[in-house]
Amino acid sequence: MVDDLMVVGQLGQSLDGRIATESGHSKYINGPAGLMHLHRLRALMDAVVIGVGTAIADDPQLTVRRVSGPQPARVIIDPNGRLGADAKVFSEDGVRRVIVIAEGARCAPPPGVETISLPAGDGQLAPVAILAALARCGFRRLLIEGGAVTVSRFVAAGCLDRLHVMVAPIILGGGRAGLILPTIERADQALRVPMHAHQIDDEVLFDCDLSAQRVPIGTAKKST
Prior knowledge:
The protein is of the alpha/beta class.
């Protein structure tokens, strides 16, 4: 491990690699088994992170409901401060709520919501900078839950230790792709990672180990 963080990405998708239909409908591609696994992951984490697109489209609660366990903090990456104050992720329930915005962006979150301002490049916030800022807030176990663009940016930036892909036994035939990464010319240039597959009822979890490519965040841990 290059530092004291554990960063896990999570995607739920169809057999043909779709996370939603063309119209954006995604409730629910995964069945009860996949959703229960997601809630177990949440309960193990200090914070759950999503992008503003997912927050607006799905208005998720990001709480632990299907299993017993502690509630993680909720973090929204919202460079331009687009998310409305009535979003469910901002609900005041005793859990820390954090919004990550670009420096200079107008943002008026509800009372009690912490704000992190970071430099932006081309309107985007760098995953490395986001993780470093969250680490300074005391978060060590982080779940990058969505959406596909956010998870893909963390994969491309080498910012995940593990990627969980929960595949449901359905075929959408079209729609929005799960991972959107820089193109390659040859198949032998593809990222090949250690992986374990787990059957969970009628769904399959692919647990991918990306730790070998993970970049250090902040100061690396020193051996003693």
